[in-house]
TrEMBL record:
Coiled coil: none annotated. This is OsmC family protein. Signal peptide: none annotated. Pfam families: OsmC.
Length: 141
């Protein structure tokens, strides 16, 4: 896996990331740090990546279990250390999964498997942060 980051000096502290798969992602800093608030902060991007990684796992696990999953969202809340490096110290992931006849236990199992076995992003973040999760299952209309 590769990624190249390029500073865009005409845009303050904006950084342009080009991934190995050929996609582009823009990041920026806070105004007090010289940024112009044009894009997410790098740490927000890291948090979003962790959410995407675990949501992907949960949906895939449920689909492989032949469950009728229709939607999945993850709301992430993070706390960071007060001193540099300001690593994540706590992460809470709230999963809202919608489907037809989805058993709560199956969704909870998928979340646990993602956290314990499959999600590389939360495995790395779990080395500095306490990670907790909650699950809400909704019936599709």
């Amino acid at each position: 896996m590769e990624c190249t980051i390029h500073w865009e000096p005409d845009a303050g502290m904006a950084m342009l990331a080009v991934t190995g798969s050929g996609h582009t992602l823009v990041m920026d800093g806070a105004p007090e740090g010289g940024g112009r608030n044009l894009a997410p902060r790098p740490m927000e991007t890291l948090l979003a990546g962790a959410g995407g990684c675990t949501a992907y796992d949960v949906v895939l696990i449920l689909k492989r279990g032949r469950h009728d999953v229709r939607d999945c969202s993850v709301q992430l809340k993070a706390e960071r250390a007060e001193t540099d490096p300001k690593v994540f110290t706590k992460l809470h992931l709230h999963f809202v999964v919608t489907g037809k006849g989805l058993p709560q236990a199956a969704v909870e199992r998928a979340v646990a498997l993602s956290h314990e076995k499959y999600c590389s992003a939360t495995a790395m973040l779990g080395r500095t942060a306490e990670i907790t999760a909650s699950v809400e299952v909704k019936e599709a209309v």
